[in-house]
Amino acid sequence: MFSSNERAFAKQMSKAITAAIQHNGWFTKESIYFSLNQWGKSLSVGRLNQWLDRYDLTGSKAKTVAVIMAGNVPLVGFHDFMTVLLSGHKVLVKQSSKDKFLLPCLVKFLISENSEFADLVEFTDDRLNAFDAVIATGSDNTARYFEYYFAKKPHIIRKNRNSVAVLTGQETERELKLIGEDIFRYHGLGCRNVSKLFVPKGYEFSKFFEAIFHWNPIINHHKYANNYDYNKAVYLMSEFKILENGFLILKEDEHYASPIACLFYDYYDDEHALQEKLHRDSEKIQCVVSANRKFGKVDFGETQRPRLKDYADNVDTLAFLSKL
């Protein structure tokens, strides 16, 4: 049986989800439910204790930590928000205009369950003032501004990153199906979405296209379809060689950040050389997905199911906060 407070929260969250979808055309009920479901699984008592037991959080004096959030996927800033509170600090939240309904609803429920949190969470749309440290996420351009503006404060500044997958040609049909989750979840907008493949020379893409075909309904999303049509037209007019299956464009390209509805790929013939390349470019890469542990530790289909200890940009946020 649900309590009256839980039933009231369910109604409020339903309204927040509707508002979020109406406000941001990239957000769908499915994507928001997926995000909420993943957080629901992560925030079990056992997983929280297992994560927190690695840190000494008793010695730090409570500070105010400003958290500047991105808005590319639903609740993308929730890990930073939660980490600040669990480390014993107050959180000053500056949300992205693209995702401004979901977190306040969760916070309202949190306060209704424990009124002590009312003094520990503050939202602002104004210029940040009166804070001791900052965690800011943005593009490469905004990161330069953040680094200048917050230079005198303890900070974590996150820039653009993309995720890649290394294929060997020996993947099973199941593994190739799972990589569709890494590519298409949230329409490919997240830094943990695979935006580039590394494949062995002579790789045949037909099995890959067959395995991911169950994702074809994504083309029915109007914003995704507009990006697909636009990028396909640009590539064809520019006479680039592309492969496509009606909802995903593959283009050989050395860069990591592919446009929406596109996936870049590069060939390799030397595993050691590819390892060195990925190491050199590590600051551009969020996740490396591969069945070959020489390259990455993330399994197929798992990029959008990070563990609590899987910190963005490999920066240990909780260690940073525990030393303030």
Q: Classify the secondary structure makeup into a structural class.
A: alpha/beta
Could you please say which CATH topology of the largest domain applies here?
Aldehyde Dehydrogenase, Chain A, domain 1
Q: Averaging pLDDT over every residue, what do you get? A: 95
Count up the helices: 11
Radius of gyration from CA coordinates: 21 Å
Number of strands: 11
Helix and strand run: HHHEHEHEEHEEHEHHEEEHEH
Which CATH first-tier class of the largest domain would you pick?
A: Alpha Beta
Shape: globular
CATH superfamily of the largest domain: Aldehyde Dehydrogenase, Chain A, domain 1
- Return the CATH architecture of the largest domain: 3-Layer(aba) Sandwich
Strand content: 15-25%
Order of strands, widest sheet: 8-9-10-7-6-11
Can you describe what's shown?
The protein is α/β, with parallel strands linked by helices and 324 residues long. The chain folds into 2 domains: 4-160, 3-Layer(aba) Sandwich (Aldehyde Dehydrogenase, Chain A, domain 1), CATH 3.40.605; 162-289, 3-Layer(aba) Sandwich (Aldehyde Dehydrogenase, Chain A, domain 2), CATH 3.40.309. Helices cover 38% and strands 16% of the residues. The protein contains 11 helices and 11 strands. The strands form 2 sheets. Strands 8-9-10-7-6-11 form a 6-stranded mixed beta sheet, with helices on both faces. It is globular, with a radius of gyration of 21 Å.
